């Protein structure tokens, strides 16, 4: 079976600091993969490269068998890949619902603006409905009319997930989805992610919370010192020597 995501020989340095040296892994369609590694091991950098925010020095990113290395982010989104951010930044003046609606990439561009006829109104209605449905799934209905800048850090994370989902991705990558989220909400996020997975979505999740990883993921890959050092089931992490070494800094 062809991998939905394949990363080959990826390397990236910031100045003299070689963050990623030779990173290679595959993700199969339908998997929920946890991406782990100590602080500063390059997890966010890896997501930034895969999603086209920064270019690698070396290596290839293949999405569904197509080379998307250094393809700009807005194009990669149209190829079916979306991601969320470790620290989401929200517009000051827009409401939660407006931010979610603005994330619908099919609503942008010159054509829809020029032809603001019946078709456009229907498209806008559909966008609004889908945004409201996703806000409901991610438990944000109660705050949907508040300014997006006024909601809690955890709620901003959830809104980030909603925005990523508005683009209808086949592959969704999440950067620390539960950091700063109230513990009561974590189970709800796991449930929402499993529901998306049941609908066919593939997920890559950067996360530190081991409980969350065990509940959410089928497989984990571990990044350390510029390489993938392990690929195993969440329950096998604690007995994997290279994983233990990575976290103890040995
Ligand atoms: P992680 O997400 O695993 O904690 P990051 O990918 O954020 O790690 O960062 C890996 C390393 O690269 C860190 O040492 C960080 O300081 C450095 N780094 C990340 N982005 C930049 C950048 N734009 N310029 C310089 N250094 C960076
Ligand atoms: Mg990070």
Can you walk through the features of this model?
The chain is an alpha/beta fold. It has a domain at about 5-90 and about 165-250: Rossmann fold (3-Layer(aba) Sandwich). The protein is about 35% helix and about 25% strand. It contains nine helices and ten strands. The strands form two sheets. A six-stranded mixed beta sheet has the order 6-7-8-3-9-10, with helices on both faces. Strands 2-1-4-5 form a four-stranded antiparallel beta sheet, covered by helices on one side. Strand 4 (about 60-65) and strand 5 (about 65) form a beta hairpin. Helix 3 (about 95-100) packs parallel to helix 6 (about 155-165) and helix 5 packs across helix 6. The longest helix is centred in the middle third of the chain and has 20 residues, at about 120-135. The radius of gyration is 19 Å and the shape is globular.
Write the layout of secondary structure elements.
Layout: E1 5-14, E2 17-27, E3 32-36, H1 43-50, E4 58-63, E5 66-67, H2 73-78, E6 81-83, H3 96-102, H4 110-114, H5 118-137, H6 153-166, E7 171-175, H7 183-198, E8 202-206, H8 210-216, E9 219-224, E10 227-232, H9 241-248
Parallel strand pairs: 3-8, 3-9, 6-7, 7-8
Antiparallel strand pairs: 1-2, 1-4, 4-5, 9-10
GO molecular function: ATP binding
Domain ABC transporter: 5-250
Protein name: ABC transporter ATP-binding protein
Largest β sheet strand count, sense and barrel closure: 6 strands, mixed
Q: What is the fourth-level CATH superfamily of one domain?
A: P-loop containing nucleotide triphosphate hydrolases
Molecular shape: globular
Distinct ligands? adenosine-5'-diphosphate, magnesium ion
Mean pLDDT: 90
CATH level 1 name of one domain? Alpha Beta
Beta-strand percent range: 15-25%
Sequence stretches where pLDDT stays below 50 over 5 or more residues: none
The number of helical runs is: 9
Question: How far from one another are the termini?
Answer: 37 Å
Q: Which value, in Å, is the CA radius of gyration? A: 19 Å
Number of strands: 10
Strand order of the largest sheet: 6-7-8-3-9-10
N to C succession of SSEs: EEEHEEHEHHHHEHEHEEH
Overall structural class, as computed from helix and strand content, comes to alpha/beta
Organism: Yanghanlia caeni
InterPro entries: AAA+_ATPase, ABC_AA/LPS_Transport, ABC_transporter-like_ATP-bd, ABC_transporter-like_CS, P-loop_NTPase
GO molecular function, one term: ATP binding
Pfam families: ABC_tran
